[in-house]
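QUALITY CONTROL LOG
STEP: pairwise intake check
CHECKER ROLE: data steward
CRITERIA: each record must contain a sequence immediately followed by its structure tokens, with no blank fields

ENTRY 1 OF 2
RESULT FIELD BELOW
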Amino acid sequence: MRSSLLRLSILTFKMTPAMIRARRPYFWKNAVAFVILSSITTSVYFYTYSFLGKDTFDDIPIPPVSEEELAKLKAEYEAQKKLKEGN
């Protein structure tokens, strides 16, 4: 009988009252831990995003491009663009 209840709870994914009582003491601790870890992750993400948004990349030199080379690159870009639109 016990194995059939265990099998039934596993197959239906329903929590028995005993499982609910066993998990109850950990609910708030887990909720607090989730909030703390989520807030740390979110704050690091937004700090990094805001820091990178302020960078103007002025310290990176841009190599000079001649007009001929620029025209050639533009023609290649337009040709690739037409191929993608055709497909």
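ENTRY 2 OF 2
RESULT FIELD BELOW
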Amino acid sequence: MTQLKPILSHLDSIPSTPGKFKPEKSFSYFYRLRLHSKLTLWSFIFIVAIVFFVLISPPSPAPETTRRSLQMAGKNTGSDWENRVRASGRSKTGRVVLVTGAAGFVGAHVSAALKRRGDGVVGLDNFNKYYEIALKESRKLLLEKDGVFVVKGDINDGVLLRKLFETVSFTHVMHLAAQAGVRYAMKNPSSYIQSNIAGFVNLLEVCKSSNPQPAVIWASSSSVYGLNSKVPFSEKDRTDQPASLYAATKKAGEEIAHSYNHIYGLSLTGLRFFTVYGPWGRPDMAYFFFTKNILKGKSITIFEGVDHGTVARDFTYIDDVVKGCVAALDTAKKSTGSGGKKNGAAQFRIFNLGNTSPVPVSKLVSILEKHLKVKAKKKVVTMPRNGDVPFTHANISLASKELGYKPTTDLEAGLKKFVKWYLNYYDSKKKHASW
């Protein structure tokens, strides 16, 4: 990890707090009053200008989530639909879990794990177009074989959420739905606000009004550590320097969760995932599209830090993350409120779920070359300022102590499993796939 020093010194040069303006003592009270008046006047003009432009701006078109919700509204009704939801929610353990983002990478694996052990599981996913929907549909088909019904709907649809809670009495909510991706935030920032903030608030509103309230476990992200240069990242470290809009929305989610815990007595547990990878993964992740491009003979771009510093990630295998999610659910205490009223202090926790062994991206590529038996065409460039950070490294001592979390899969073994799945899934002659 010595190669990270150039990067750390570069990051340490960035000021953490803005300087304060200190007027000279020789300034007269009259001058300060005139200065204050001018600033007040200009502030007033600025606010008026913003209001004016907002009023004259044409109304924005309905967001994709709104259109999708309207299209799905007719499908999420009727006795057949309610029977499917109830059947999916039947439990042998007493635990009934609503999993949002159930057709997503982590969501699908967690849903399957919970169902296999006897929990009642109902999935919810909006099947957005951030990456290929066919992959999400394939995950959905596997979940249906396991007995999990994935409802097509959006977490911003309050009517649908309330209907689900009226149909099934959920003991837990595993909230894994989110707009993912760091770089995509530069192209479509509103989708992150809509999903990661507005959607989360909408879900918490329904949860806090339920009787009884469910315990909520939700996905945060290692991205909240942002420009923090202290490694490994600990839950006690500062998280007020986000390097991307994605990270900022995840940090906002943690603050929002704390407020609902404090005001309404919701039991809330946040999980900061560190670069999760494995079979059925996300096509926007480096290990996934590196594999795709290497097999197609296309060049891959590998980022390096300032002064040729190492770019490394704490790659965490999906099975290890699933164990952490399940352990967080099993140790979550009951919410203390009911019907929107708090009856006592409730549990609030934040945990890192990582592998605690950062690996340079160049090493990742070498492992892929080995398992694919193909030499990659590499193009090394300096990491652009697009929201990515040069390294991640999880301190998992808290999760180990409180959850019994212990990752067991290294990158070599994990990528071997991923490559095996990838070659099987994308082989046109094979139409079947399994977990």
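INTAKE CHECK: passed for both entries
DESCRIPTIVE NOTE, ENTRY 2: Confidence is low (pLDDT under 50) at residues 1-66.
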